[in-house]
Amino acid sequence: MLLLRSLQFIFLVISVLHFMGRGAQAQSKTLNGVTIDGQTGLPLPYVSIGIKNKPIGTVSDSIGQYSLSHAGTDIDNKDSIFFSAVGYRSVKMDWNSFIAKEKIVKFYQSPQMLEVVNVKAKPGQIKTYGRSNASIIFFPAMYKSIPKYSDEKGREQATILKIDQDVFLRRLSFKINRRTFRKIKFRMNIYSVKAGLPDQSILHKDVVFDVNGTTETRAPRSESIDLRPYHIHIKGQKEIAVSLAILNLEPLPGDSTQATFFIPSFPGPLRSSLYRIKAEAPWQKVSKSYLLVELEASSIKNSKDDTPGNLPDTDAEIIGNTPSLKGLLYGNNQGKRIRVDEGEIYYESYGKGSPLFLLHGNNERINSFREQIEPLSRHFKVIALDTRGQGNSTNNSASPYTYEQFAQDLSVVMDSLSIKKASLLGWSDGGNTALIFALNHPENVEKMVLMGANLFPGPEAIEEDVIEDFKNRRDSLMKLPDPESQNQMRLADLVLKEPHIDDTALQRIAAPVLVVAGEFDVVKKQHTMLIHSLIKNSRLEIIPGGDHYAPLKDPKVFNKIVLDCLVPGNSLE
User: Fold this and answer.
1) Which of 272, 381, 415, 468 has its CA 20 to 30 A from that of 563?
2) DSSP H or E segment with residue 374
């Protein structure tokens, strides 16, 4: 019966390859094939495929079929292609041999290296290595530079853990961002470590599992996988690399966000996480990044230099004691939420004193004020908001965004916090919101600082190339139906169509106002001067050599200008 099934499968494989080969002639950058068990002739699923030291590869599917896409200039004749499957000997071929042969790749099981043992852990022997939870999480910026044309299959994240030298694995736990997919199939792998990088796989049982996504807007959540059925015994290793690789991804209907990785990190100053784009691509280190992956194990014998997996201090203490990481705290620091019409506003508070609200720009978040929060919090109770539909704030409406809506959200937040009067620091879109709030609620404004604000859209106010960039962005997103793309489209449209602030209305603003812009701001200088001329109790500051991002690029100069305006006892004269 097994022989009959094998013959049937081989016949199916030849038929599929014939059909796929005809398609490959029309598209020469895709090579199709099948991976099979050389002993049984049956399909071998989820085989990792990659060109050595290059970000090119794929993973075979549940019936062993694969499609390897590449640009003709990406691979030369000296390159090697590797096929690897947990529990099987790897297959290596030079590129010329591979493209000349039939693309049926056979695998044969490798000798068992790990013992298969059932152990009941005694009390006190169960330990954890690594961590799967943190109050402050982030996705490293370098993930954004990964080419979007490279599909997700084979992408791998890893962390190196010190372990006891004789352990049986019980459970894998990890944090995952579920918001951008319907389902992901993952493979857990464990490698030996050489020169600080994952080296050889030491598993001989394939640990493959599915994680379901969600359309709900919420922070990354924890996932747990029972490893006891796999009987994984690791002996003689002082440290291991634990990885999670994407085997297949089912996106949400119409999704176009193409997130590169899904396991977040904690900003640990003494740790590095790792990633690679494909199975044979070089490992890349991400400094100051503690990947949120944890193993629970039964430890048979403790090593002499046993190092607990969990960090000794609280998350906030670790960040606070590391100046280079301190800015990562803002926007992810266990803030609070206030319900507004069809949404929630996320905010964080720092310092004591009279209230000062920070309002960020278009498609930004609290963290954009990372150079301002600490120095300002020495003098004020700083309340930093994520604007509706941005950062950690939510928006449940599909209506176009307006600055009037943002200003109304600010009013609700102030009422909820029982704040009668506050100063406002608004940057870009945040400055537009501050102006409209001051017109609608003059009694609630102490002082205002406006950085790069504008009264109306269009080339009279904003540089033409910036307008074109937003038009192109809006148009590219307009036909994409997924919620995130539509949200981004509405934010781009806001810049192109809003605000519409009446010139004469500005003359009613009685609160002291500091109007700021960079010398090379995207808001034209004459427009910034117009705002200053229309607000009678205002002062103008143009930062020499600065641009629209002066709060981040030249924070010392910007912060001094702001404090000179806002600190009690200082006047605008």
Assistant:
1) 415
2) helix 373-377
